[in-house]
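Supplementary Note 2. Why include the ligand at all?

Several targets in our set were suspected to adopt different conformations when bound, so apo predictions alone were not considered sufficient. For every target with a known small-molecule partner we therefore ran a joint prediction. The input for iron/sulfur cluster is given below.
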Amino acid sequence: MAQAFFGGVHPGDMKAATNEKAIEQLAPPAQVVIPMSQHIGKPCRPVVAAGDHVKVGQLIGEPTGFVGAPIHASVSGTVTAVEPRPYSMGGNMMSVVIENDGKEELSETVKAPENPDSLTPEQMVEIVKNAGIVGMGGATFPTHIKISSGIGKVNTVIINGAECEPYITGDHRTMLERPEQIIGGAAYLARMFGVDKVHIGVELNKQNGIDALNRVIAEKKAPAEVLGLRCRYPQGAEKQLCQAVTGRQVPPGELPSAIGCAVFNINTTCAIFRAITQGMPVVKKVVTVSGSGVIDPKNLECPIGTPVSNLFDACGGLKDGTYKLIMGGPMMGLAQYTADVPVGKGTGCMLAFAGDEDQTVEHPQCIRCGRCVSVCPMHLEPLMMYQYTAKDMLDELEDAHVMDCMECGACTYICPARMHLTQMFKVGKQKLGAKKAAEKAAAEAKRAADEKKEA
Ligand code: SF4
Ligand code: SF4
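The joint prediction is reproduced in token form.
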């Protein structure tokens, strides 16, 4: 068993509702709404207009900055609008709305390379870039940048099969149903980085997934090995996974590449395989739909841009008394005020709750038990960061390294007083960001004034 990392918690995994259910293809929706921001970086610019006919895999949004990934049509049909629509990150986002004609016509631009195994690393990176692949575990960082910036520096490539958040089982089902794609994608990553072997980290509550991967590795004599990991949240966070697999620790404020590691999610690895062997860009996503408010929880594969309400309908609908919707897992997901938001490349889970999960306390008081400190995998002091944020002590908050907080929610989970810790740290980071922006603007204004005086 691989070595673990500091801290973490072990919440009930709640995966039994869906971990034995095969991935179902969702009946194609009548309409998809595809947001122009599905990656870290500036939103894409739409390159289609209302009235255009589009086909599956056709480019509809192109990046506007260095950090970005193109966006493609997920159904064939007619563009009926290009306008801001509700979006899972809050507010509205420019979106391309496509009326599905049900023909699933494939774009002529979707072409399989003649001989994928003869491609150079540079050619493979270009294919990954054009396919719009991003971190599909939720991070949504453009994959081609992670690869190209890591070539020559990275000596350890890790596939993230931890899937440590409760309820989510899409990666587990992918291991069972599509192990060839994972191992094929891992082999391409090994070639791109020039490493002998790729490490696949999987928590031990997915033993049949580990077996499925090992079977394909043996059959294909693939350059990969599976490491069983002790179940511990947040094992799937990049830095913790690096430590669990290699024993090396990513320094504060640094990325895994600082210790020679690059981490890719299971479904990102499959997307790499499909892009290199079929020329297929990212147009679909596997989503776990679960929680006490869902009548028949499932794993569904749907076109990007499918309204979340369609997913719930395909699961028999929501129970009376459903009071909370979360996109993502219960530890790190984002609460949604409506099911009228679309599935994006980073959407891996939709939860609905109708039971007694909500244990919110209106005016929580810290009892200084120190548990939050003992579970923080980033070695932070959540109780102090909470006080600094609440009292606007922003210099102290920065010195407490709030920017290293990855908002994993382990401290909130363990806190017996039900303090709103993680939520407070999001606010603290925003305050700190606003303070820095104001300081920068003031410094620039002063410099401009000084230059004017000298002139
Ligand atoms: S776990 Fe909660 S109650 Fe305990 S010290 Fe941390 S914030 Fe305070
Ligand atoms: S949310 Fe932040 S402070 Fe809390 S345990 Fe996770 S990394 Fe530590």
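The chain has three domains: 24-278, 287-353, 371-454. The chain has a mean pLDDT of 95. Comparable summaries for the other entries are listed in the accompanying table.
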